[in-house]
Amino acid sequence: MIRTILEYPHPTLKQRSTDVTTFDETLHTLLDDMFETMLAHNGIGLAAIQVAQPVRALIIGIPNQADEQLKNELLEIINPTVVAKEGTTTYQEGCLSVPGFYEDVERSDTITITYQDRHGSSHTLNAEGLLCVAIQHEMDHLNGKLFIEHLSYGKRKKFEKELKKSLREKKNPKTD
Ligand code: QAP
Ligand code: CO
User: By CB atoms within 10 Å of each CB, which of 27, 70, 103, 138 scores lowest?
Assistant: First the structure.
């Protein structure tokens, strides 16, 4: 089932998510629905809190060389912890909860995380490039943080201005 994605400034997006403790059918349905929802909105990453579930679960589906996002290539990351990070990199980010806005954000260049899969088994992952950026972006969601909170004062002002404009256009689709 496709679920509703919460959009900024929905207050739930600011909530800190809690650890997953039961790796049951409810979790599996949530992860399956998150995948369907992410694809329906042309996303490459989604955290559970974005579909109003405040649990530490996220998915990342970077398109493969054939430009497909296959379920069996999807990364399902539960209860992640960063155990190492190095360097800095800048990437133009977007977010399904902040539709239509993209801006450069500085992140770590490489990270190592430990996490659990949907069955509760533990894994270690070294990430670089787009995957590394995506993991950091989605892990921020687990702590109630959006990418726009990383912006400089000037770029944040630009965001607020564009947000007001898009809200105006929604209210008044004809004349603006
Ligand atoms: C997070 O973001 C991310 O504004 C995932 O209109 C960000 O999937 C991972 C999207 C940067 C890696 C690098 C955004 C779709 C999708 C929009 C997304 C939109 C439609 C964002
Ligand atoms: Co996001």
Answer: 70
Q: Are 55 and 48 spatial neighbours (Cβ–Cβ below 8 Å)?
A: yes
- CA 118, CA 24: separation in Å to the nearest integer? 8
Check 36, 106, 138, 160 and give the catalytic one: 138
Whole-model pTM: value is 0.97
Predicted confidence (pLDDT) per residue in 96-129, tens digit: 999 999 999 999 999 999 999 999 999 999 999 9
Q: Quote the tokens at residue 110.
A: 């490489």
Q: Among 23, 85, 91, which Cα is nearest to 57's?
A: 23
| Fold (CATH) for 11-171 | Peptide Deformylase (3.90.45)
Cα 175 to middle of ligand 2, angstroms: 31
Is 138 one of the annotated active-site residues of the chain? yes
